[in-house]
Each structure stands twice: as C-alpha cells, then as structure tokens.
C-alpha cells in the first residue's frame, strides 16, 4: 500500500502494470468491456487491486465527455483582446450547456506548459488555446489528451487542430499603404519580442513590405513579462523626431495605452506630425488620442467562431472543419467616428 505522502496512483500506473493502454483502463472503468478479452480485463483488475487505485469522477468524465467544461487558455489576461475572445466563446458555449474555465499564462512559456499538463489531469471536454509558443509539436507534447482543441489568434505551422485567426499580414500591409500615401517619413514600431509570436511576425512583415524607398523603419522591442515603462519611453523619446512625419505603430493595444499619453503631453506625438495606429479593440485609445487610426481584430467574433468550431468537434471529433478560418480586421479612423475600412485578407 502506498505510504502517506507518496505520489498518487494514476491511470497510467495501472495501464503500465497491466500491460495495456490507458484507453483500455478507461474503458474498463466505465464498464465498456465488450471488445476486451477476459485476460485483459483480469490484468486490469489485478493492477487496480495491487496499486489500491481508486477511480475518480475526473477519470470517468475524461472518457464519457460528461463534465460539460471547456478549458480556455489565454496568453495574457491584461490584454483586452484576450478578455473579449473569452467573452465571445463563453456566450456560445454557455448556450450549449458548457462552462468555460479561463486560465492565464501571463506571457510565460513555462506557465503555458504547466497549464497544458494540468489540463490533461482534469475533466475538461475540450480546449480553446491562444498559445504563446509557435511550435505545434510542443503543444502536442504537452496536450496529450484525446479531446478537441481549437487554436485562436496564432497561425501555427503543421497544426493538427483548427485555427481561427486575424489576417495579420494583410491588415498591417493595407493599413500601412494608406499611411504611405499620406507622405510619411518614418515608422516607429513598438512591440514585445516580435519573433516569439506568429501574429507579431506577420504584422511586422506587412509593415516592412508596405514601405517605399526612403521611408525608414525603427523598431523598439522588449520583454513583455519584464520591462520598464520608463526605459521604453526614453527609447521612444530618442527615436521620434517631431520634425518628421512619423507613424507610431503598436503591435498590441496595451503599448499604446502605456506609452502614448506621455508622448502626447510632451509634444512628440501630435495630429500634425504623427499618425498613431496599432491593433486595438477598446474605446480607450479614442479618449487618449482622437486622431488615431486603429486596427480592430473583432476578438468577440473570433471567440464565437472558435467556440462554434469546438462544438462541432465535441459533437463528432472526426467531423471535418475548416483548418484555417480568417476574421478580417478593419481600420477605424477615430476622428471620423464609426467609419471603417475592411482590411481584406485576399491579395
């Protein structure tokens, strides 16, 4: 008998001792022994008795798809975008009787890995994931449960799961072409580490490709989980030349909220010498900078679409669904109220 404080016996321990798969143990525990040989059933029962394994509700729910709970993992709950995709998904899932459980990686890859491994041991029926990692194989290594998964807001190469994303490259490119036509001199991009997320890489490439000869591109990058607002501001102060027509392009709304107010107070960003833009989905930017032109990704709609896709897979995990669904972004000129321009993903 395991001693007090020893590691809890798991279904994997039972399967290993019995010489069968965890799926076979799960079927045995749920009374589905029809396709199982008598010897296999006896081996499983003997392993359960020897290990003093007590089947839990969680183990049974994992097999029966009975928990009616969906795990929802976001990259950073401080971002309004993450909150909105959660709200959109929750609305759809709750209408179908599911509870959505929000989990935050707080921009930490290690935290993301820990959450994915933890989800394996819980009775969730499916997973909606806004990943930090760009590596689909890394996700597959951690999320070993055989249940439906839908990826949101990240376009992963070699993904085995459906993905719902924004047309990041085309949105940035089309918006930037509008700004280029206004006779700009330079672009200052503000972002957390660009290479660490497919969204940022695509947006940044779209900006670069839209520029014409003689227009300069300056970039400020920092570690999202460990940075000084004042240090980034000082870099911006040194980089922005008020004598030039400058586009301040933020790859995330939070950076506009952090850095735009002091730059405007100091006269480095004005309606005469600047175009302020970035990916933003709240009304906060409008109150700070009425002349900004922001790119909306429609995260509520993205969350709804991801949840609808997950429900289809929950009904039948073998059902074919689109591998990549794109939500077109729109460019909003705040000085013109509700005037939108769709930044279509087609070329």
From TrEMBL:
<keyword id="KW-0238">DNA-binding</keyword>
<dbReference type="InterPro" id="IPR028082">
    <property type="entry name" value="Peripla_BP_I"/>
</dbReference>
<dbReference type="Pfam" id="PF00356">
    <property type="entry name" value="LacI"/>
</dbReference>
<dbReference type="InterPro" id="IPR001761">
    <property type="entry name" value="Peripla_BP/Lac1_sug-bd_dom"/>
</dbReference>
<dbReference type="InterPro" id="IPR010982">
    <property type="entry name" value="Lambda_DNA-bd_dom_sf"/>
</dbReference>
<keyword id="KW-0804">Transcription</keyword>
<keyword id="KW-0805">Transcription regulation</keyword>
<feature type="domain" description="HTH lacI-type">
    <location>
        <begin position="9"/>
        <end position="64"/>
    </location>
</feature>
<dbReference type="GO" id="GO:0000976">
    <property type="term" value="F:transcription cis-regulatory region binding"/>
</dbReference>
<protein>
    <recommendedName>
        <fullName>HTH lacI-type domain-containing protein</fullName>
    </recommendedName>
</protein>
<dbReference type="GO" id="GO:0003700">
    <property type="term" value="F:DNA-binding transcription factor activity"/>
</dbReference>
<dbReference type="Pfam" id="PF00532">
    <property type="entry name" value="Peripla_BP_1"/>
</dbReference>
<dbReference type="InterPro" id="IPR000843">
    <property type="entry name" value="HTH_LacI"/>
</dbReference>
């Amino acid at each position: 008998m395991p001693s007090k404080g020893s590691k809890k016996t798991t279904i994997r321990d039972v399967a290993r001792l019995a010489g069968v798969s965890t799926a076979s143990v799960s079927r045995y525990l749920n009374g589905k022994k029809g396709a199982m040989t008598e010897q296999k059933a006896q081996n499983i029962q003997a392993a359960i008795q020897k290990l003093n394994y007590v089947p839990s509700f969680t183990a049974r729910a994992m097999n029966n798809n009975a928990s009616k709970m969906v795990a929802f993992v976001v990259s950073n709950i401080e971002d309004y975008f993450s909150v909105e995709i959660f709200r959109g998904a929750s609305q759809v899932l709750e209408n179908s009787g599911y509870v959505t459980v929000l989990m935050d990686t707080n921009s930490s890859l290690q935290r993301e890995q820990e959450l994915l491994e933890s989800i394996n041991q819980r009775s969730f029926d499916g997973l909606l994931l806004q990943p930090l990692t760009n590596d689909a194989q890394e996700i597959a290594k951690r999320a070993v449960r055989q249940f439906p998964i839908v990826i949101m807001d990240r376009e992963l190469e070699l993904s085995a799961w459906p993905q719902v994303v924004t047309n990041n490259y085309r949105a940035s490119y089309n918006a930037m072409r509008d700004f280029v036509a206004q006779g700009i001199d330079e672009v200052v991009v503000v972002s957390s580490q660009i290479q660490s997320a497919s969204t940022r890489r695509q947006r940044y490439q779209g900006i670069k490709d839209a520029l014409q000869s003689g227009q300069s591109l300056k970039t400020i990058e920092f570690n999202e989980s460990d940075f000084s607002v004042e240090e980034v501001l000082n870099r911006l102060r040194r980089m922005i030349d008020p004598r030039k027509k400058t586009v301040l392009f933020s790859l995330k709304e939070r950076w506009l909220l952090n850095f735009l107010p002091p730059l405007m107070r100091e006269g480095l960003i004005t309606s005469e010498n600047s175009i302020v833009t970035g990916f933003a989905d709240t009304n906060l930017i409008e109150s700070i900078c009425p002349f900004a032109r922001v790119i909306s990704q429609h995260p509520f709609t993205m969350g709804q679409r991801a949840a609808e896709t997950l429900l289809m897979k929950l009904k039948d995990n073998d059902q074919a669904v689109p591998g990549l669904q794109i939500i077109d972004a729109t460019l909003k000129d705040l000085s013109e109220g509700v005037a939108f321009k769709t930044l279509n993903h087609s070329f």
